[in-house]
Amino acid sequence: MEYEEREIKAQLDQPIYYGGRLGDIFNQSRVNLEITKHNYDRLRIDVAHKTEVAYYNLVANRMNLKSLELIRQEASEVLDIVEKQFAAGLVTSLELSSAQSWYKEINFQIDSVKQEMEMAKLTFKQVLDISELPEITQQELKIKELNLELNECLEAGMKNRPEIYLSELLVKFNQYGKKIEESKNKFTVDLTTSYSHYQGAWKTESMNDSNNWYAGIKVTKPWGANTITTSAIREETQPRYGQSSPTKTSTIGAEYNFLDNLQRLSDEKKSEIELRRSISDLNETTKTINFEIKDAYLNYQKALLQAVTAQSKIEFRQQEIKVLRVRAQVGEVGLSNLMEALVNLSQAQTTYIQALANYFISLANLKKATGYGIKI
Fold it and tell me: 259-307, pLDDT tens digit by residue?
């Protein structure tokens, strides 16, 4: 004759006391979430900085190309006059060759700038991750009058650089890690319970129902590399197939596990090492950021001086061209000298715009070094 039985069982194991470990694990997880957020801030600053650098390079190349094309237009007019004078026998072939050579030099500079501008466009699109270049309304760059102090930049960097927060959070994360490992040396208390509903009977008979349960407390205490476990359990069961009477038992037991907890000792030492390392990294990060801000600030001051110097050279070359125009009209100098002066102006213009781009890039580097904490 066949026998049929069914059982539904629910078991619950609940920590009661873990020496504060569970709270520390929760707090450590919250710190880990903050680390993720500040990692996002760090990446955002990197993208913003790359975008600024690519943008300033593109605008500067457009400025340079525009100014060189204006100079070439004037040089073309001068070369046309020289060619007409040569055809009329008024100037020598050497004068014509000289003028043509200077004109070719201007064309070479324009071709070089065009190549650089195409690279600047490609870089800008790559940074923005787009296929078509967006409309850029800014036509030129101008030096801004800024009142930046090194101490203010250092203070802004300490407040806004995400690397500082990340390093501080890593110290906090490892502090919780050390507390978690230390708490594993304390005793723990766990509640363990079980409840089941049982049905069983011969196929020809109706089902008999019964409920079974047990509940107990387990206390565990590490002792060096060993573990001591004690437990107290109360259990009640109803008769099942093959049993004739219910059972009630109360059990108190103890276990001593020899060298089963060596990993805990290793983890505790490792957590201490990680904490000391994170503190050292925080100090190193602070020093590095201080150096980056000072370096960026000095490069900004240097770029500003170079841009101002290059601008004064342009003014000198422009005055030189004005004088040579007058002297060429009265025949004191040849037009090839004016062409040479136009080439010198184009070179000075290129140097100035490069210095101007370097100024804005240095300013972008300073903003990044301060975590975009300075107001411009």
Answer: 777 777 888 889 999 999 999 999 999 999 999 999 999 999 999 999 9
Cα–Cα distance measured from residue 71 to residue 102, given in angstroms and rounded to the nearest whole number: 12
Rounded Cα–Cα distance for residues 297 and 226 (Å): 58
Which residues make beta-bridge pairs with 194?
A: 11, 214
Q: Could you give the CA distance from residue 109 to residue 156 in angstroms, rounded to a whole number?
A: 41
- In angstroms, the CA 159 to CA 157 distance is 5
Cα–Cα distance measured from residue 113 to residue 346, given in angstroms and rounded to the nearest whole number: 11
Length of the chain: 376
Phi-psi region of 205 (alpha: psi -120 to 50; beta: other; left: phi over 0): beta
pTM for this prediction? 0.76
Task: Name 82's Cβ contacts closer than 8 Å, sequence gap at least 6.
Answer: 91, 95, 96, 99, 335, 336, 339
The DSSP bridge partners found for residue 292 are none
Which residues fall within 8 angstroms of residue 116, CB to CB, at 6 or more apart? 61
Q: What is the pLDDT of residues 74-100, one digit of tens each?
A: 999 999 999 998 898 888 899 899 999
Cβ-count burial of 253 within 10 angstroms (0-12 exposed, 13-18 middle, 19+ buried)?
exposed
What are 125's two structure tokens? 């699109």
